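re: that chain from earlier
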Amino acid sequence: MTNATRMWAGFIIPFAIFSLLLLLGGCASGQSVVEKTNKLVTPGHGFTELQLADGRKFHVFVPANYSPSQPAPTIVFLHGLGESGSDGFKNLSVGLGPVISEQADKFGYLTIFPQSTGSWEYGSEDVKDALASIDLTATKYNIDPKRIHLMGLSTGGQGVWTVAATDPNRFASLFAMCGWGFTEAVPNIKRIPTYIVHNSMDPLVFTVNSDTMASKLKEAGADVTYVKYGALGHDCWSRALSDPASFEWLAKQHKP
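^ sequence. v structure.
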């Protein structure tokens, strides 16, 4: 091993371990996200907890401008591995949950936060529950069926592919961040506009996953926007979710 290789390994291995611990530990507690958010909005808005028939808990964010008389654009957000569980809160701690808590009075999307028991494996109960959470939410709130957007990070980024492939007619757009690939989904999802984000030097989920998905989707004729940040680290979502271009793109997507 050369000196340069040793230096690189001495940097990248601790960095990867640190990134994994950050991912598993979360950036904020789900309870604090809910409490902070609900202080900024009026009763009937903010985060509320729902429960599926199988007992699975999940949260829905109801925006401050929500009115039952107006169909609401909706995001379904799929968390990463570190936020798995059954409490219904941990999945709010990384990604879109903290973003909403900082701008709850301005964030305009009704947002559904299903929680998996692990990965979002194709054909799993977790995938079925993610879709069931949309159905249940639609019985409580006026969701716009033409503007349901599926978003996820890390293992939730792969979940974007598996959930969309299970019910491709459901979604107006797909937004996958630093996710594992699932090329088997391409035939089912090729008609859905897709936004992919990844860091070029991701030590946990290698960039080739998004490279391959973007390439296969484009080969199939899909409308794909691929943003690759020249950065080291797994967390590309903080930058993506603070970039106005991300939500400008999202706002343009709707089913015919």
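Residues 3-25 form the longest helix (23 residues).
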